[in-house]
Amino acid sequence: MTQTQQKPIGSGFGHGSTVDDIIGDTDLSGKNYIVTGGYSGIGLEDVRVLAGAGALVTIPARDHNKAEAAFSVLPGKIEIADMDLSDLASVHKFAREYTSTGRKLNGLINNAGIMACPLSRVGKNWECQFATCHIGHFELTKGLEAALKNTENSRVIALSSTAHIITDIHWDDPHFHNHEYDKWQAYGQAKTANALFALGLDRKWKASGVRAFSVHPGGIFTPLQRHMSLDDMVALGWKNTDGTVPKAVEAMFKSTAAGGATALWAALSPQLNDMGGVFCEDCDIAQAADEDSGRYQHAREWICDPAKADRLWDMTEAMIADA
C-alpha cells in the first residue's frame, strides 16, 4: 500500500459542517465505538450522533458521576466504564475488560486531553500533558489491538490540533526534566505526538485492516480551556480584556457540534476507505504546509515524517517498559 498523500480530497464538507451533517442518515446498528473524553465538549457531540445512529458507544471516564449526568438526557446505547488516562494500570484494566467481552471495535476516537496546564507529573515522573494526551492513548490503543484487528475496516482517530505547529517533539527531554517547562511547548509537543502516533499506527496496522487518522477539530470554547486565565486568552487574541469574544474570533471558532465533525468524518467517511496516516482539518485531509500557510492551518512537515513516527513509537515503548 502506498502512503496516503497529505492533501485535500474535496470531501464536500468544510469549516462549518457539524456532526449532524456528517452522520446524515447513516445506520450504525450493530457497530461499536469507544470515545475517550466523550462526556463533555466535542466528544459529547460525537457520542450523541454515534449512539443516535444505533451504535453502542463506550465511554471510559475518570469521573463516573459526571459522565452519567451528561448522558442521562441522550437516547441510544451508551455505557460508561472507569478509566484514568494518566494511570496506566487503569488503562490496562479497561482495555482487558473491553477485550474480554469479545466485541468487535469499529472505531476508537482518542478525544480526551488536557491543555496548557501548570507543570504536574504522573507515572514515572512524566510530564502530565504528554503522558495524558499521548502515552495514555498509546497504551489504550495497543490494549485494544485484538478488538480493532478483529473488526473489518476499523479506524483509530487521534485528536491532535493546530497546536502541533508550536513544536516538534522535544526529543532529548520530552518530560522537561532538564530544561524549563513551558505549558504551550508541552501542549504543542503532545499534539505533535498525537499526529505522529496516528501516522505510526497506520503504518504498523494497516496490513491488518486498521487505519488511523489525526485531526484538528478547530478552535472551540470547551472545558479544555479550564487551565487558561483570561490573560492567557487575551494574549492569544481569543478574548478581549473585558472577557468578550472579538468578532474575528467568533467567525473563526466553531460550535461544539462543528468541532466534533472532523473526528466523526475521519471515523466514518467512505471517502477515506483504503487511506490513512494523514492529518485532517475542516472535515477533509489537510494541505501540507508551505510558505503561504496561515499561522493556524495545515500540516507541518514534522508530523508527516514516518521516521519521526517510528522514533516516537520506540521512545514511548521504552518509557512504558521502564515504568
Account of the protein in words:
The protein is 38% helix and 13% strand. It folds into two domains: 19-219 and 256-321, 3-Layer(aba) Sandwich (Rossmann fold), CATH 3.40.50; 226-253, no CATH class. The relative contact order is 0.17. The longest helix is centred in the middle third of the chain and has 23 residues, at 183-205. Helix 5 (128-143) packs parallel to helix 7. It is an alpha/beta fold and 323 residues long. The strands form two sheets. Strands 3-2-1-4-7-8-9-10 form an eight-stranded mixed β-sheet, with helices on both faces. A two-stranded antiparallel ribbon has the order 5-6. It has twelve helices and ten strands.
Distinctive features:
38% helix, 2 domains, 12 helices, two-stranded antiparallel ribbon, alpha/beta, single chain, 8-stranded mixed β-sheet, Rossmann fold, 13% strand, 323 residues
